[in-house]
Amino acid sequence: MAITDDLRKTLTDPTPLYFAAGTADLAVQQAKKVPALLEQLRAEAPSRIEAVRNTDPKAVQEKVSVQAKEAQATVQAKVTEVLGTFDADLKKLGENAQDLALRSVGVAAEYAVKAREAYEKVAEHGEQTVKTWRGEAAEEINEIAVAVEPDPEPKAAKPAGAKPTPVAAAAPPAPAAKKSGPRKPAPKKTATPPAK
Q: What sign does the dihedral 97-102-108-114 (CA atoms) show?
């Protein structure tokens, strides 16, 4: 029974749907920013293209070759340093392996908690988005306003001889009920004699 209960709970939980709705809403909000970014790029493009056209290829080539020589020298120095300290680091690595494993488990647990919090936050945003789409948020605000604000006109006691006002005139009209015609009787089943 526990499996069916878990399955029922999983299938009736709306949180993943709210998460999807929240993600979609956040994506729409980000997409609304794209036209402004495109306009900015369109405005900056001519100046950047002109700057590329005005650069001297020889100067760029010299700069790149100098940087490449510096990078090569740096890499060689680092490789020599690493190979020299490799034996000492190997011993330290063996000593610190258990400490590193425990730290990684702690970090993984921390990230799992943060991911769950972010998931719940987006799901809440999605729930509010769905309520807005359905118009439920406006209904809740109206319900709160009715609960908070007292009746603007307190009902006064009616005199003994006054006629009661019809309730139907004050209330909004109820939706018309479907009228169905007279029911047709179900067709009778006739028994057929068994074949011989």
A: negative
CA distance 145 to 152: 12
DSSP 42: H
Regions of the chain where pLDDT drops below 70: 1, 87-90, 93-95, 136-142, 144-196
Q: What is the pTM of this model?
A: 0.38
Residue 131: partners with Cβ closer than 8 Å, 6 or more residues away? 137, 140
Compute the half-sphere exposure of residue 22: CA atoms within 13 Å on the CB side of its CA. 17
Structural tokens at position 107 = 């970090």
**CA dihedral sign of residues 12, 16, 19, 21:** negative
Rounded alpha-carbon distances, angstroms, from residue 88 to 19, 92, 154: 50, 7, 89
Please give the Cα distance from 80 to 72 (Å, whole number): 12
Tens digit of each residue's pLDDT (9 = 90 or more) over 123-162: 898 888 888 888 766 666 667 666 666 665 555 555 555 5
DSSP class per residue in 62-117: HHHHHHHHHHHHHHHHHHHHHHHTHHHHHHHHHHHHHHHHHHHHHHHHHHHHHHHH
* Alpha carbon distance 109, 115 (integer Å): 10
The pLDDT of residue 193 is: 59
Place of tokens 């990684």: 104
Compute CA distances 55 → 59, 64, 74, whole Å: 8, 14, 28
DSSP helix/strand/coil, 158: coil
